[in-house]
Every structure is written in structure tokens, then in C-alpha cells.
Amino acid sequence: MKKIVIFINSMEGGGAERVVSTILNNFSNDYKCYLILIENNMDYILNNNIEVISLNVNSNSSGIKKLIMLPILAYKLSKIIKKYKFNKVVSFLYRANYINILSKFFSKHKVIISERIAASSMYYDKSLTSQVNKFLIKNLYNKSDLIISVSKAIKADLKYNFYIKTKQIVVYNPYDINQINKLAQEDIDIEIDEEKSIITVGSLGVRKNHKMLIRAFSLIENKNIILYILGKGEEEDILKQLTKELNLENRVLFLGFDNNPYKYLSKCDIFILSSNSEGFPNVLAEAMVCGCSVISTDCLSGPREILAPKSSIDFQLRNNIELAEYGILSPIKEVEKLKEAMNIMISNKIQRNLYKEKAILRVDDFKIDKIIKQYEDVICAE
Length: 382
Hints:
Blueprint: E1 3-8, H1 15-27, E2 32-37, E3 51-54, H2 63-84, E4 88-92, H3 94-103, E5 110-115, H4 119-122, H5 128-140, E6 146-149, H6 152-161, E7 168-170, H7 177-184, E8 197-201, H8 210-218, E9 226-230, H9 236-245, E10 252-256, H10 262-265, E11 270-273, H11 282-289, E12 293-297, H12 303-307, E13 322-323, E14 328-330, H13 335-347, H14 349-363, H15 368-379
Parallel strand pairs: 1-2, 1-4, 2-3, 4-5, 5-6, 6-7, 8-9, 8-11, 9-10, 11-12, 12-14
Antiparallel strand pairs: 13-14
Helix pairs in contact: 2-3, 3-5, 8-13, 11-14
């Protein structure tokens, strides 16, 4: 039986991790599937016939230690590759990608890396972290055999900003629409008035810019709306403090992490993605499956390809919002414009319902059977 091997940092929360679980669970009946983890954390349910191997690295390691450990972990990975006689390893996320490529120096295997976010938007400043990662991308990625980019904008970013010449294939994220709809029917332990609800789902980190969302929410005209924040992360205490300072404690509710966000999304009216950068935001498409009308920042990358697929990936909003074909786009880091987008979506029920109807049509393009077939064609190719 042919082997499918996926290597990732961990399976703790996150969109990339959800995609990995979806791919492996769908492949596990036809292929012998292996999941290799750097850190042994698991938030997703995997089929029992998927073999999980962990490098057992401490998840609290500092950035410097993680950098120093790259060649050591590459050697450890190469020993696993040799032991199990893997001839191809597909990695997800930067750290795993670096290790996968470096392990090629110790073992002979084909390296496929999955690029989940535009590096230019992730490593844009002059910090040591940004400089190191830009150096690694420029000097390692061309040593991979194939890059699966999750959006057209990411493919262009690697090619033109990082001079990557390795062959790239764009494969969007897969969504099990039937399973999402099934999970969406589950009950929740809070009462939500759909007509008065906005929800956001995602890790509570700086890149997701929940601060901007909360500030914009504090300025909207309709003060009867409740904002639900589903997720966990390092900024949680900061965001709760901001909510307190803005006297929004009764209107902004933190729900924590839930492995089934769909049961909340399906009971809310409007979904908002406020990120400064993304790859191909799973939760945006999932919210559309769940019947939400959606607002998103026009960040690099993903939202424009989802909500305005006929527009150019080179275009990015600066000073105005855009009533796109499948939702509203707003400039990144612009509190006033996000407030404007929310006011329009809240006040215009006809527009809101039209977006909900069109969303169902759009997400059909990302149905699991279509996307999994694309992954199969790429991963299983000789």
C-alpha cells in the first residue's frame, strides 16, 4: 500500500492543522498514512489507522532555541524517514518546511512543502525573527522538489519577492461541506439572537488583529449587537482588558476554543475576519458554509480570492471598503473602515441575505472531493 507522510509542527488548533486532519482522514482508507509531529499536541480527531510519530520537542522553546534545533531535528526526521522507508514527505508550516528541506541532506527523499501564508505579510519588519525567516525561505525553499501554495497570491509572493524557482502548484483548502453542516446542528450552551450577532473565530494572536475588531465594534451604530470571539491565544488577557476599557464586557463575549466552531457559526448572522495577513483562511470559507454573511480585511492572501475571485490578486484596498461579489472587503488595520463595513452589513438586511445565498454557491468550489483529488494527484504523483 502506498504511503502518505505529512509533517507539521503540531496538531494544536489552527487552520493548517485542520486541513492536515482532513487530508489524512480522507486518504487513510486507501493509503497507509503517517503523521509526524515536532510537538506532541493534538486537538483534532484522526482515524485510528493513521500512525502518529512525534519528535517530542518542548512546545515552550524560545525562538533562538528553535533556530538552533533546526539541523538537529532535521537529522532526527531523517532517521525516521530511513527507518520507515519513506520516499516522500509533505510538510506544512514554516518550521516543519525548514526541517523537511534540511533533512534532505541526511536522507534521500522527495520534499514537498505546503506554503500556507504569504511570507511578505508575515515577515515584513526588520526584527531578527523576520530577517532569519526571510533568509531561510530564500536559501532553503529552492531546494524543495515542489511547493503547494494555498493561494495564487502566495505563489506570486514566493516567485517575485523571494525569487523561488521551484515548481509551484496552487491547491485551495478542502472543506467537507456535509460534515460541517452536520456539526453545525449541534447545540450550544449559550443563547444567541441571530439577528443581533457577530462572530469571529481564530487564534487570539497579534496577526489576527482582534484589537482592531473590538475597537471597530465599539463604534458601530447598533448597540444591541453582541460580538462573540471564539478562540484562544497569547493576546486573550490583553483583549479582555481592552474590552473592559471600552465598557464592552456585556457585548463582547469570549467563548474559548472549541473543536467544533460550526455550531456557533451557524447560529450567528455575520462573520468577521480582521487579520493583517492570512494564507487561505479556512474559517472564512467555513463561515460561508454555515450561512453567515461575511466581512474580511483585504489582507494578503486569501480573502480576495474567496470573496472577489474575478479581481486581480495584485490589487489591495487602501482607503475604501469594497462590496465584493461574495462579501465585504475592508482595508487592513483600518478601524474606521471596518466599522463602516459592519454598519452596512448590519443595517442592510437585503444585502446581508444576498451574501448568505451567494456564499453557498461560492464554497462549492472548495468541496472536499474536488480538492482532495487535487492533493492526491500532487502527493501521489511519481
